[in-house]
Amino acid sequence: MSKLREVLSAGGFAVVVEIKPPRGTEVAEMLAPVSRLRGRVTAFSVPDNEHARLGLAALAAGRLVQEAGGEPLVHLTCRDRNRLALESDLLGAASLGLENLLLVSGDYITLGDHPAAKPVYDADSVQLLQIARGLTEGQDSVGLPLSGRPSFFLGAVVIPEADPLAPQLLKFEKKITAGAEFFITPPVFDLEKFRRWREQLPAPAVKILTGIKVLGAAEVEQAAAGTWRKVYSVPPDLVQDLAGKEPEEILARGAAAAGSLVQRLKRGNLADGVYLKAKGRTDLFQKILEAAGL
Amino acid sequence: MIIAKRKPFAEIKAMVAPYKKILIVGCGTCVAVCLAGGEKEVGLLASQLKLALGLEDKRLEIGEITVERQCDLEFIRPLCDFIADYEAIISMACGAGVQFIRELCHRPIFPAVNTAFIGVNNDAGFYTERCRACQHCYLGITGGVCPVTMCPKGLLNGPCGGTVNGRCEADPEKECAWTRIYRNLEQEGRLDNMRQILPLHPHDRATTPGTVIHPAYKRRYEAHE
Amino acid sequence: MNLKPMKYNPKILALVCTYCTYTAADMAGSARMQYPATVRIVKYLCTGRIDILHILKAFEAGADAVLVSGCEAGSCHFLEGNLRARERVEYAKQLLEEIGLGGRLEMFEVAASDAPKWVEVVKEMTQRALELGPAPLRRGQAFHPETLAQLEKVVET
C-alpha cells in the first residue's frame, strides 16, 4: 500500500524529496538522501530523464530507493516511449511494487543533451493517465485483459503561474477525469499568490503538493540578468538577497528560505504537502526540514 | 505545398565528383515556388558547379532541364529519351520527384534539396510548416490549428506545462499551439472540444510507404490493394 | 632560357546602369581621366535587370572580378531597381563564397555626375582582382608544358 496515498488520504502533510538519477551507474550519491532521511520523509521522487537529459532509468532507480528503505515516487514521461513501452513500464513498475507514479509529458527533446533523438509523445499526459487507470481496472490500452491487477497512486503536474491560465486549468480538469489523484506544482515562492490560485481552482479538494526549490548559483544569475524563462517566477527581493554570493552560501540561504516557506505552508494549511528540490543534496534537505520544524 | 531547401553546395559537389556528364533536372511546382529547385535554381547550380570544378581544373558537362513537376509521369516520361546520355542525374525536386525519376530511368540520382515540410508561402523567401500528413485531420476539432504539427510534442490534449507567456518551450519565438487552439475555440464558442479527452492517435493508418486509391478508381486498381 | 610569365592583367566585368554609372563613366572618358584598362562595361538600363545568373556566367566566361554599379539608394531612375540589385548581389556573394570564389564581386553606387568616383571604383576593383589573383577559369590560358618546351627550343635557335 502506498505510504504517500495513506498520508494524503488521512489528511496528513506529505513531504516528498527529489533525488537525482546519475548519468551513469554510480548510484551512491543518488541514494544518500534515502538512507539519511527515510524516517522524516514520505517519499523520494525519481525523475525520468529530467530536462531531456540522460539519467539512470526512473523505474530502476525507484527499485533502488525501495531497497534502500525509502518509498519511491517514480516519474514517467511521454517523450521517450510509445504506448506499448509505457504500458509495459507501468506493468513493470507494478510488479516491483512501485505504486506512486508521476505521469508527465516531458520537456521537449531539443532542450536536453540528446537534441537529435526522436521525440516520441505517442501518448500525452492525459492519455497516459487514462492508460494507467485502465491497467488498474484490469485492461490494457487496446482493451485486452491483464493477468493480475496493478495498483497505482497516480499523480500529475499543474502549473499555477501558467500564462495563459485558462487552458492550463482545462487540462487540470482533464487530468482529474483521466485519473490523477494528486498534483505537484513547479516551485512556488509567493504563498499568497499560491493561496489565491488554489482557492479559485475548479476542484480545490484534489491533493496538491507545492513545489519548493533551493535555487543554485546559475539560476540566481539568470534571474538577476533578466533572462529568466521558466513556468514559475522568483521574487526579486530573493534574487537580490542571493545575487553575487558564493555558490554554497546561495544554497544555504535558499535552504533556509525554503524551510520557512514549508513551515508557513503547513501552518497555513495551504497545501497537502511539499515537493522539495535541492540538487538532490542530503545536507540541504536536512536544513530545510530543520528550518520547517519537521 | 512542399517546402524544400537547397542542400549545402559542398554536399552536392561531392555527390557528383565521380562523374563527367550529368543532367540537372528542375521542378516547376513546389520547389520553384519556394525558390529551391526551379528553372532559375537549376541554372545557378549548374553555373556554380562549373565554376567550382574549374577551380580544381576539372570539367563537368552539365545538361539543364526543368519540367512542370517531377511527381507526375506525364511530365517526366519525356526525360527518358535523353537521360541515357548522362552518367548521373541531379534532381532538384522534393524526395517524391527524385524517387519517381529514378523509378523511371536507371541512372544514379542525387537530390539537390532537403525536403522540409508541407507548408505555406507567407511571402517570397518565407515559408512555414503547417501539416504533417498524419492521415487523421483534427483541424475541425481544434479550431483550425493543427496539434500534430504546430505543437512540437504533437499533444492531442494540450497544453503541456512548458508554456511561458503563451510561447512554446521548444521555441520561444513561436506561440504555443494549444494557447492558439484555446483562443480560437473560445472565440468560436466551441471550448467543449477542448474539454473532451482526445483519444490516442491511430498511427497505423499512416504506416509508410502509404497508398491512396481514390474510391472511384477502386475497381481499376483492385490489384494494388 | 626562361620565358617570362604572362603579366596578369585583370579582366573585370562592370554591370552598370544607364542613368547614373554609365553617364559618370562616359564623363570620365570625355575628361580623359586616367584609370586601369581592366574594365569591360555591360550597359543595363537599370541594375534591377541584372540576373544573378549573369554574374555567375561572367565568372564562367573568365572574369577575374565583377562589379555592379548603379544609382545611389533613393535615386534610382526606375525607383527600386538598385535596391533589388543590392539584394541579388548579396545573394550572389553567398553563392560565390560557397564555391570558393569569394571577394570578387562588389556593388557600388555612382551618381551620374560623379566621374571621379567611377575612377575610384575601377581602381579599387582592379586592386582587389590583382590581390586575389586570376580567376580559376582563366588558368586554361596557361601554356601546356610541352608547348612551353617547344617554344623555348624555337627561341634558342
Describe this structure in words.
Chain C: It comes from Desulfobacca acetoxidans. Chain C: Pfam families: FlpD. The complex is a heterotrimer of chains A (294), B (225) and C (157). Chain A has 294 residues and is α/β, with parallel strands linked by helices. Chain A contains eleven helices and eight strands. Chain A has helices at 3-9, 28-37, 58-67, 83-95, 125-136, 165-178, 191-199, 217-225, 236-242, 247-267, 282-292; strands at residues 14-18, 43-46, 72-77, 100-104, 153-157, 182-187, 207-213, 273-277. Chain A has an eight-stranded parallel barrel with strand order 1-2-3-4-5-6-7-8, surrounded by four helices. The model of chain A has no long low-confidence stretch (mean pLDDT 96). Chain B has 225 residues and is of the alpha/beta class. Chain B folds into two domains: 2-117, 3-Layer(aba) Sandwich (Rossmann fold), CATH 3.40.50.2300; 132-199, no CATH class. Helices cover 29% and strands 19% of the residues of chain B. Chain B has helices spanning 9-15, 30-33, 39-55, 73-76, 80-83, 95-104, 147-150, 177-188, 192-195; strands spanning 2-6, 21-27, 61-67, 88-91, 109-111, 113-123, 126-131. Chain C is globular. Chain C has one domain (12-156): Rossmann fold, CATH 3.40.50. Chain C is an alpha/beta fold. In chain C, strand 1 (12-17), helix 1 and strand 2 (39-44) form a beta-alpha-beta unit. The mean pLDDT of chain C is 88. Chains in contact: A-B, B-C. Chain B binds chain C through residues 8-10, 13, 40, 43-44, 47-48, 50-52, 54-57, and chain C through 52-53, 56-57, 59-60, 95-96, 98-101, 136-137, 139.
